[in-house]
Amino acid sequence: MSCSCTPGFDPNDIKQDVLEKINNHPCYSQEAHQHYARIHVPVAPACNIQCNYCNRKYDCSNESRPGVTSGRLKPMEALKKVLYVGGNIKQLSVVGIAGPGDALANPAKTFETFALMQEYAPDLKLCLSTNGLRLPEYIEEIKKYNVDHVTVTINTVDETGEIGSLIYPWVHWEHKKIKGAEGAKLLLSKQLEGIRLLVENGILVKANSVLIPGVNDQDLPNVAKKLKEMNVFLHNIMPLISSPEFGTKFGLDGVPSATDEQVMAAQDACGMDMTLMRHCRQCRADAVGLIGEDRGDEFTKEVFMDYELPKLQEIYDLDGRKKAFERIELWRGALSEANQKIKKEQATKSELSSNGITKLVAVTSKGEGVINIHFGSANEFLIYEAGDLGIKFVMHRRVASAYCQGSEGCDGSYPIEEIKESLKDCDLLLTEKIGSCPMGELQSINLICDESYSLQPIEKSVFEAVKKYFYTTDKEAVIGNW
After folding, report:
1. Over the stretch 419-466, which tens digit does the pLDDT of each residue have?
2. Is residue 14 scored above 70 in pLDDT?
């Protein structure tokens, strides 16, 4: 991949009205995602394009946890669920429609749902995800219902349609399937037109791109450059999930899933042009809770459907939610002061380190901006790049199984090999607590483990720990095998 020398915009230059829009949106703000929750309501089952990374029997395997079917909701059912969840998860700040098909291929259900949310849950931000094919048609409706966050999946900007034809077998337009390069060119034209109209109307745009090895990986820097030219707010590069058991064409054809290393390389290539979303978890179409957690099983229809709306409004408790948000913001202010503004999201290695050498640090956290989960219970790791001048968040890495499943789930095995593979390029692990056995296993891959920063702010801890282990007091890199 090649990259342009045009830098991404400085987050410090974001206008106040935009800061207010993203402040408690966990997808549009990396900081907010540790404090605020979202809910996706699956009211949009139909889709109008076919993607080779999608199997229609399931939620899209590249927008959700693969291989798991979702229940569908009618708009009123979605409202009831949101009111119930919002009363039980006070930090809920966003309701989105992300499928399981395409939000704008189901316009009546999508906008009926938003109308209900406006009336009964006016404190929630509204957002939708779309492939963009019908986006230009619905700009006025998006404005009408105050949907000021829209995600558009755009995987290529190849004007010939050749790359797109490898991703999309067909698009459905004016009652017929348009196949191959012709369909891909039509889709791209509608995506770009729709993005232009969104930006012109002050609606924040996040672009999702699925990194497909050998297909669009070389084109993603061109995507980032185009998004930058169009003033798109954020670019999210998602790894292709392509296991054969998911039944997608790419999976069955042997197109490999994208690795962490490939995602990082794509981020490096595209981050020169665009500000990147690095904390995405490729959420389910019925996701509930903080990004990275799945609380959907707690909120099935049986839990909330028997309630009448007046009771659900009482449960939702607007005043109580407002007070909860105020407490979150007080805590965020304290964290910001503790972290000393050492995070530099768009920084290069030379801006993070006085000698141009940086270290990768893995952190275990269940949210709230602190190191607050035991290694044995962690099934994902936050990865930071750090030097003696600053740090930046790189990505999250999820593993299939935590090291310890607890007494009920324990079968006598401790799955450390996947964790070692996931963290093999990391230099340091900060965790709330870790036992001597897993610590010894991780030391075999030269990974330093430190539990002395338990319950401390993440960013400050990462910065201090890197200086502690890898730099002397005069800030020269320590030479040696750590």
Report:
1. 999 999 999 999 999 999 999 999 999 999 999 999 998 889 999 999
2. no
Do 155 and 266 fall within a single domain?
yes
In whole angstroms, give the CA distance from residue 392 to residue 51: 33
Number of domains in the chain: 2
Closest Cα to residue 299, out of 112, 88, 66?
A: 88
Mark residue 349 as left, alpha or beta (left: phi above 0; alpha: psi -120 to 50; beta: remaining).
alpha
Spatial neighbors of 62 by CB under 8 A, at least 6 apart, are 51, 53, 54, 210, 238, 240, 241, 282
Bigger pLDDT: 368 vs 198: 198
DSSP 8-state code for residue 259:
P
Residues 171 and 62 in one domain: yes
Whole-number Å distance between alpha carbons of 279 and 380: 11
If you search the block for the tokens 């768009």, which residue do you land on?
346
CA–CA distances in Å: residue 222 to residues 163, 233, 271: 12, 16, 11
- Quote the pLDDT of residue 268: 78
What pLDDT, on a 0 to 100 scale, did the predictor assign at position 114?
Answer: 97
Residue 312 resides in a domain: no
8 Å CB contact between 257 and 240: yes
